[in-house]
Amino acid sequence: MRRRTLLGGLAGGLVGFAAPEDDATASLERRDQRCASDEDDAATVRIDEGALVLEGLIRTPTPCHALVLESVSRERDVLEVTIGVGDPDGFCVQCLGVVEYLFEIELDGREPDCVAVFHERRDETVRVARGEPQRAN
User: Nearest-CA neighbor of 111 among 128, 134, 127?
Assistant: First the structure.
């Protein structure tokens, strides 16, 4: 399992979404990777216990490519998150890959009205989700 925790610098783009006492805390976790079949990029968005939670699937050049948080920004009441494809982690089987991920970021109690999720690869950026986040029960 590969997990990256981002502190500090993220808060600058999250005015209104960073924790009031601390800088925003976010994590991007690579959950699974495999050779792609007919799967396409996808993401679901929900709010759970004061955090925005994204679960997604991103196409990659190989299953071993790392994921990076490219950006988190807020435009009015829309929170935009861009997940990108990084460099490969060592040697890997040569097939087109897909990587499942989990992204979480703490909210300060002010939930966004809309969330847009983008996936960024070397030569393209695609919007994979946009809408009102589901609320966890």
Answer: 134
Conformational region of residue 64, where left means phi above 0, alpha means psi within -120 to 50, and beta covers everything else? alpha
Do the beta carbons of residue 53 and residue 109 sit within 8 Å? no
| Residue 68 near residue 86 (C-beta atoms within 8 A) | yes
Find how far residue 97's CA is from the centre of its chain.
17
Give the β-pairing of 78-88 and 97-106.
unpaired
Token pair 């109690």 in the structure block, residue: 109
- Give the whole-angstrom CA distance, residue 120 versus residue 137: 31
Please give the structure tokens belonging to residue 45.
């968005």
Hey, where are the domains in the chain?
2-135
pLDDT tens, position by position, 66-104:
999 999 998 888 999 999 999 988 888 889 999 999 999
For residue 16, what is the DSSP state? T
Handedness of CA 27, 31, 36, 37 (dihedral sign): negative
